Amino acid sequence: MSASSDFAAIRMAIAAFPADVATDAIGTHRPTIDEIFSPENHAGALDTSSPIVVGARGTGKSFWSGVLLQPALRAVAARAYPRLGLSNLKVRFGYTGLAGPDGGIDQERLDACVSSDASREDARAFWWATILNAVIATDERQPAKVKDMLVMARSIEERDKMLASAEGELSAQRQTLLVVYDALDTVATIWPRRRLLTEALLEVAWAMRVYRSLKLKLFLRPDQLNDDALRFVELPKQRTGAIRLMWSTEDLYGLFFSRLAMGEPSGALRAILGSLRLPSAKNEDIRTRQWLLAHDQASQVRLMSALAGPFMGDGKFGHKKGKTYDWPISHLGDAFEEVTPRSFLGLMIAAAQHGVAPPQRAITPDGIRYGLRAASRTRVDQLHQEFPWIKGVLAPLDGLLLPQEEKKVFAVWKKAGTLREAFDDAKHQDYLPPFPAGSSSGSLADERGLYLAMERIGVMMRRRDERLDMPDLFRVAAKLLKKGAMAPA
After folding, report:
1. Whole-angstrom distance, CA of residue 114 vs CA of residue 123
2. DSSP class of residue 360?
3. Does this model's pTM top 0.85?
């Protein structure tokens, strides 16, 4: 067994992980080379033949956008995914949600090009203009302002002429131009405009299928792509072909152990691995998925058992509390049973910061449970950034026992006036309300619409017996109760 000092060093290293693991495609929070971890099933996020990538907040949309946009990081990804031809890519911005010297396009610049009473044709012209602008930048010319490209974008003949010329040049060079669109949830703050812009972009993406060397990559949230009010005729095909960013248990532990191995300088992890007869690895092996601990569950279980003990309880019957390897995954999933790296790493960081360091361990079961509370608070805070109405909707449910009949949940919201407050605040603060007033999904007098909005984003779900429930990831921070489950803080 390794010395206590090794476990103490590991504990300190985990506790020192950056607490905010969010990234942007551009700017100060863009991904770095040491953060790259390449799950096998994320290849589609970089594949030019897959134009639409879908993922909830924290699954890696902006991370992979940032990797694509940086040549040095793209070279690393090319070694991890050698079949994708990433070394032959030229990558430019289409929309990033952030403005800056790198040419990022944000909502303010979009609004300057597409008026509040814009038609579908106007919206399509804007997206075509972003592609034309990317083509100009690829030719090493100074890109024009997107607004200045709108005239050409509206002319089918001029637009096609420019794209055909670029296609020919890229093909002769055996290169592909990829135009990346990230942070697309920021395009609008009212439902009709978001739908207009989303539909127009999807139409343009579909039209771009005719080009072999000019490709688009759209990173979208599930609720945006799956909006029932979208009416583009080819949308079902696009939804079917979309790549979903998901993280398996092995991927999450692989990311966790890889960050530890690449950032821990003292050799403590190597000593612990050696005592378990598990291999250590060089950084390049880790980035290219060659390290056993990056993907092999049996090896991951052994290391996690060494770091935290095998079970969540002590004594003869400690196994009844669950395995330390499985417990975080089973409690961090949303209503779609998806766990994000942000929540998983957040739990581990908080676990390493909790209480007194144990002998011959890096973290404890109590620390893991504390980590869930911390991860739950963080996840709700992060969700609030995307859906500013969420905390106001959760607050009246404080103390409610789950699972619960829908009429009782709806009665709580009705008594608190939750719907009216949500819509009033959305109007005053200029953000999207839970659903469009008067839509088929609900109305101001219909709490069912509010539940459906929460169901769409994975915060609530309906059990087989029709009662409503909430995953621990949100329930703990929202202070709802559940028999036999972990109590809120």
Report:
1. 6
2. T
3. yes
